[in-house]
Amino acid sequence: MGTLIVIEGVDGAGKNTLARRLVSAWERDDLEVTRIGFPRYDSSVHADLAAEALRGEHGDTAQSVHAMALLFALDRKYAAPDLRKALSHNDIVLLDRYVASNAAYTAARLEQSADGEAVEWIRALEFERFGVPVPDVQILLDVPVDLAAERAASREADDASRTRDAYERDGSLQSRTSAVYGGLAAAEWGSSWEVVGPDVDPDRLAADIFNQPSDGGKVTT
Fold first, then answer.
1. What is the β-pairing status of strands 137-141 and 92-96?
2. What is the assigned CATH class of domain 3-211?
3. How do the domains of the chain map onto residue ranges?
4. Residue 216: pLDDT band by 50, 70, 90 thresholds?
5. What Rg value do the Cα atoms of the chain yield, rounded?
6. Considering the entire predicted model, what is its pTM?
7. Could you tell me the CA-to-CA distances from 205 to 18, 40, 200 in Å, in that order?
8. Which residue of 68, 154, 156, 192 is most buried, as measured by CB atoms within 10 A?
């Protein structure tokens, strides 16, 4: 069975770049790696509905914190069989965002902390009720929110297809989400966490993450 590794962080933190560099490092060591990004836009009806809602479609759906969280959770529920299959055929399955992302943004929208009711609701919903695979390691790419916002705006300016959604344009939400992420990492929520900065060495991180002992897929609050 492969190792399930997740990269988390606010929008514009640089998760995509770090993911590419980690995959390259592992592949140089002849490891079989599959990378999956959540939400699974263009391949999941739930993810697409969420994206459309964030662009102002589907009435007041985006205004409901719990409705949006459910759409993102359902995306992962229906991806779970593919995740398990990928884990059975690869040394590493690397995810760009996962359950902690839903916990962080949901709590932040409700102005709750990492030990609030929203985070517990997401944990029970996704890991227990939906039974999605528990990650072995979660990486928090901890980047100053101002820097992340600049990167997201620059990405939008350079690529017309990367228009920022309502969450990405909300600087206050991003700041609160960053704080919740910090609380989740400090509490080792869900599984083991590694907190890294924007100057992280991806080669060293790749070696450290893959070689550290698994915690056996614990599910903690």
1. unpaired
2. alpha beta
3. 3-211
4. very low
5. 16
6. 0.88
7. 10, 26, 7
8. 68
